Amino acid sequence: MEFLKSIQNLFFPARGLCYLCRENSPGKEYAHICQDCFNLLEPVHKEIDIDSAFLTKIYYTLVYNRYMRDIIRDYKFHGKSYLYKPLGELMLRTIEAKSLGEGIDLILYMPAHRRKEAKRGYNQAELLATYIGKELEIEVSHNNLVKTRYTKDQNKLSKLERMTNLRGAFTIRNREGIRGKRILLIDDIITTGTTMDEASRILIKNEAREVLGLALTSSRKL
Ligand SMILES: [Zn+2]
Question: Cα(74) to centroid of ligand 1, in Å?
Fold first, then answer.
């Protein structure tokens, strides 16, 4: 048991500590974030200006500053899956500020390629979506929007390459599950917006009524 406990401490912050620094107690406002860490974050709850025929709107929660970049790195590449809690908590504030939960029937998340997800052990956008769905009591659809093709990183490509890169990348497994639904589509980071736009195209093509996007942060150049 001692062994198991020490392993667990490697990965999860001890009870009652901030999930970001694992040192301080959480502040009054957030259950998993201390005041010091919160001061390094820049919540904006801002709309991303994107020219899309399929996404009604996309919002993001936090400015992609240096601190946020480190958090994203830990969350995506260093196995710190538990960060979905403080991050999900922050995203809920955007939903609240922009009344994004109103009229939403279903929550979906941006899928990762099977190979990538297997390597990481989790899909970071799915963890956020699950947390948000639970808090808002809105159904989350798992493994319906799927990525069927491996794609290159969008931010390393030209505009034209980006479009070809994504062609046929997503598919819907159960069309009935999204038909006529107003969907909130969750992602961790928006780099160009074209990936979420393509996923939304597939959703609308499969008769979703409307798609709204929400990302934790955005590194998109304005
Ligand atoms: Zn902290």
Answer: 14
